[in-house]
């Protein structure tokens, strides 16, 4: 079980994340939603130790998560990736095996087979020799999902993976997430626009610095909870493909 306990983050004198607690069982897909600046990315980064926590702890199987990062696959927001770096699709995914092989060992047949299978799973093997900067936004996101798959991780943390992707990529990603659930993986995914993908989630975390609601999407996405999260800007913040009956 992935267990987050009373996690808080401070930015100088401002509380960016306030005592958030939840747990995720193996085989669950959990989404994070909230307004801009709510702390969605902060939560994921603090869980990984990429930014310091003011208080709280994150454990996996009763051990600190930061001591088990080899079991975690993380896909950051697109804005944090240098898409101009001269590297091929194949080598981006092959880098996932570096942690297992070490920097000075050449990848063998087994590592190459893992990379090939990951690229085939996201329908990107035919473009394996293409430079990453030459791909569309959706194709780039699929490459980084393949990289996460090649890590053979137990926990998948994805920050805004649906931003700027096409319908094909969204379909492939959701199919991969469903398969990972069947394999008993833990998935925590942030998004500002879940749209029709809401029904794929086992649980949804609604946050705005603190945890406002945690449960099935239909129990979380109520007018009362959304008003607490989005405040007076609720109507301007809602995505047009959300079910309007929620807000009557």
Automatic annotation (TrEMBL):
CDD domains: ABC_Metallic_Cations (cd03235). This is Manganese ABC transporter ATP-binding protein. It comes from Hydrococcus rivularis NIES-593. PANTHER family: IRON TRANSPORT SYSTEM ATP-BINDING PROTEIN HI_0361-RELATED, METAL TRANSPORT SYSTEM ATP-BINDING PROTEIN TM_0124-RELATED. Keywords: ATP-binding, Nucleotide-binding, Transport. SMART domains: AAA. The keyword ATP-binding applies. GO terms for molecular function: ATP binding; ATP hydrolysis activity. Belongs to the ABC transporter superfamily. It holds the Pfam family ABC_tran. The keyword Lipid metabolism does not apply. Transmembrane segments: none annotated. Residues 2-234 form the ABC transporter domain.
């Amino acid at each position: 079980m992935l267990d987050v306990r009373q996690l808080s983050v401070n930015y100088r004198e401002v509380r960016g994340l306030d005592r958030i607690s939840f747990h995720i069982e193996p085989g669950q897909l959990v989404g994070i939603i909230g307004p801009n600046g709510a702390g969605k990315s902060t939560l994921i980064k603090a869980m990984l130790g990429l930014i310091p926590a003011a208080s709280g702890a994150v454990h996996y199987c009763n051990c600190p998560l930061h001591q088990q990062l080899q079991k975690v696959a993380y896909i950051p927001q697109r804005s944090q990736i240098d898409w101009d770096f001269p590297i091929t699709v194949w080598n981006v995914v092959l880098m996932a095996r570096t942690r297992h092989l070490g920097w000075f060992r050449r990848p063998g047949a087994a590592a190459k087979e893992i990379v090939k299978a990951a690229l085939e799973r996201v329908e990107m093997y035919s473009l394996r020799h293409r430079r990453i900067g030459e791909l569309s936004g959706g194709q780039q996101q699929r490459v980084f999902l393949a990289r996460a798959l090649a890590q053979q991780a137990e926990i998948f943390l994805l920050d805004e993976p649906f931003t700027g992707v096409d319908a094909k990529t969204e379909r492939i990603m959701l199919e991969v997430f469903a398969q990972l659930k069947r394999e008993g993986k833990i998935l925590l995914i942030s998004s500002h626009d879940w749209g029709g993908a809401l029904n794929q989630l086992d649980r949804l975390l609604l946050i705005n610095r603190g945890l406002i609601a945690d449960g099935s999407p239909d129990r979380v996405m109520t007018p009362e909870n959304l008003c607490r999260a989005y405040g007076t800007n609720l109507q301007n913040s809602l995505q047009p493909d959300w079910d309007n009956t929620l807000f009557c």
